[in-house]
Amino acid sequence: MKTNPFVQFEQADNEESLREFQERIRKDGFTGFRLFLEGFKEKLKRFDEPELAQMQSLIARAKQLFPEPGAFSPSWVKVWDDFEHMIAFKGLVFETIAEPEREGEWQIILDNPYTHQDIVCYPGLTFLEGAFLYAYFRTDLKQNEYIRLQKIQNVIMAFGSERPETKRKEQGT
């Protein structure tokens, strides 16, 4: 069984192991590079504030190994820029929201008030999930769109399948 490409990349600790990794991905072509990017994106989702410098280092190393990701697929021409922006925006979230305030439920809201498109909302997130989605969507925010990462303080929730019980007055004779 082959090792996850991103794990191999992350664990490479010398020039020889990096060269072996680079050769493996080039040999595996589109599929190998796609699996590598999927692993990288999973790491982008999970990393926490203490790993910020490591993530910046990993993206720099990936850019050195594969300076032209568009050679694998034209859709990946900007992948390193997108990943760098995601790391930077997630870092901004860490900088902005103090650690003691990160507990609880978070949500992301995306909207463009000048269009008739629906507001997009991602509720019920952990702080790290919210930080990742903020970074992910912030990377490609269009003119007049806005994004909000906000903590939920109070929630009242109901489901359409729930029906209120009615109380009947008993009539006595």
SSE inventory with pairings:
Blueprint: H1 5-11, H2 15-46, H3 52-65, H4 79-96, E1 106-111, E2 120-125, H5 127-138, E3 146-151
Antiparallel strand pairs: 1-2, 1-3
Account of the 3D structure:
By secondary structure, this protein is mainly α. The chain has helices spanning 5-11, 15-46, 52-65, 79-96, 127-138, and strands spanning 106-111, 120-125, 146-151. Helices cover 48% and strands 10% of the residues. The protein has a three-stranded antiparallel sheet, covered by helices on one side. A hairpin with an 8-residue loop joins β1 (106-111) and β2. α3 packs antiparallel against α4 (79-96) and α4 (79-96) crosses α5. The chain starts with a helix and ends in a 22-residue tail after the last strand.
Mean pLDDT: 92
- Return residue spans where pLDDT drops below 50 for at least 5 consecutive residues: none
**Per DSSP, what share of the residues sits in E-state strands of 2 or more residues?**
5-15%
CA-based shape = elongated
Query: What is the share of helical residues?
Result: 40-55%
Oligomer: single chain
**Number of separate helices:** 5
**End-to-end span in angstroms?**
80 Å
Sequence of secondary-structure elements: HHHHEEHE
State the major sheet.
Answer: 3 strands, antiparallel
**Radius of gyration over C-alpha positions, nearest whole angstrom:** 22 Å
DSSP strand count: 3
The strands making up the biggest β-sheet line up spatially as: 2-1-3
- Output the structural class: mainly alpha
